[in-house]
Design brief:
Distance between the termini: 52 Å
Radius of gyration: 22 Å
Largest sheet: 8 strands, mixed
Structural class: alpha+beta
Strand content: 15-25%
Number of strands: 16
Number of domains: 2
Order of helices and strands: HEHEHHEEEHEHEHEEHEEEEEEE
Number of helices: 8
Shape: elongated
Helix content: 10-25%
Length: 327
């Protein structure tokens, strides 16, 4: 059943988005110091199209990596550098170029066949996970909860892509609250463009309007999706203080109180009052600016009656309840 579910997820349209190299380069530039002498695992990556493999193999020496492991779910062309007709899952191991030119080539890469189909939850893939220090990939959005749960179980450092709404999942938000997972450097307010399989790109162009599910860049159809990076690796932005200019005192009318919780509604992060000492409800986009040294997360979404927060019997979109930390 698990294998079939994974197979379905890997072929679901929303899971056929391949991360662009430029997006990987931009985000990874903020974490370079974390990778020295580390083994990196990319365990949701078809090496035919994996820009994660491309990035780490071509930057292996610059990052000072110890080893790169990439696992591939079943496909009929598992070799990045040549075509074949095998229908087997593989994994690649790379520990640096052997000829000194810092450019990976086929003889530098150990291509090995898995006994199973490359399901990240399989025993053999878990054994590879145990070897890794940091996991970096774009897992299937449909399996995000399960994927993160596995990372937590094996206490791995990670940098992965997911839907921003994942922070609202009952399995994910407690990790955010407890400081076990946070938003990466990329802003939550911008979408991402992804490379697509040719057939899917044609389908989008035929059934969707440009600007909704896709954009055309230099004549190439790119999938468009709201996506952000999730990580437990420290980065500079996480410790930046959010500069606040608004005051509560004298402007109480602009901050209505909830019907079912002793807190005020703050509809925009920019409007968080710097002088309010109680609990405030803010949009989930707050996590883009969340500095754990400046704010405390109290709870998510529900009031004292375990129902959605409401104002005059109307419920705003999901709110995170926060308060200033005492100096």
């Amino acid at each position: 059943m698990k294998n079939r579910n994974l197979h379905n997820a890997k072929h679901a349209k929303n899971d056929e988005f391949y991360t662009q190299l430029t997006d990987i380069e931009k985000e990874l530039s903020h974490y370079r110091k974390h990778f020295k002498n580390k083994t990196v695992l990319c365990n949701c990556d078809d090496p035919r199209v994996s820009n994660f493999f491309h990035f780490f193999s071509y930057n292996f020496e610059r990052l000072g990596l110890k080893k790169l492991i990439t696992t591939c779910y079943c496909n009929d062309q598992p070799d990045l550098f040549s075509k074949n007709d095998r229908d087997e899952a593989i994994y690649l191991e790379y520990d640096g170029a052997k000829d000194g030119d810092r450019i990976p080539n086929p003889k530098d890469i150990g291509i090995k066949y898995l006994k199973g189909n490359g399901d990240f939850r399989s025993d053999e893939c878990i054994e590879l996970l145990k070897q890794a220090d940091i996991v970096v990939t774009n897992p299937p959005f449909s399996l995000f909860r399960e994927y993160v749960a596995q990372l937590m179980e094996y206490e791995k450092k990670f940098l992965i892509i997911g839907n921003p709404n994942a922070v609202t999942y009952k399995e994910i938000f407690p990790l955010v609250k407890d400081g076990k997972l946070w938003v990466g450097n990329k802003s939550m307010g911008t979408d991402m463009l992804f490379d697509l399989p040719i057939d899917f790109a044609k389908e989008l162009a035929a059934t969707k309007k440009e600007g909704s599910g896709y954009k055309i860049i230099d004549g190439v159809i790119k999938g468009r999706a709201f996506a952000i990076w999730f990580t437990n690796l420290p980065h500079k932005k996480r410790n930046e203080e959010l500069v606040l200019t608004k005051r509560y005192r004298g402007n109480e009318g602009n901050y209505p109180k909830y019907d079912n919780y002793n807190a005020i509604e703050v509809s925009k992060v920019i409007n968080i009052p710097k002088d309010y000492k109680g609990v405030m409800g803010v949009p989930i986009s707050f996590l883009d600016k969340y500095n754990p040294n400046q704010f405390e997360i109290v709870k998510f979404r529900h009031g004292d009656n375990d129902k959605d927060l409401s104002i005059n019997s109307k419920c705003p979109y999901f709110r995170i309840l926060i308060r200033h930390k005492a100096n």
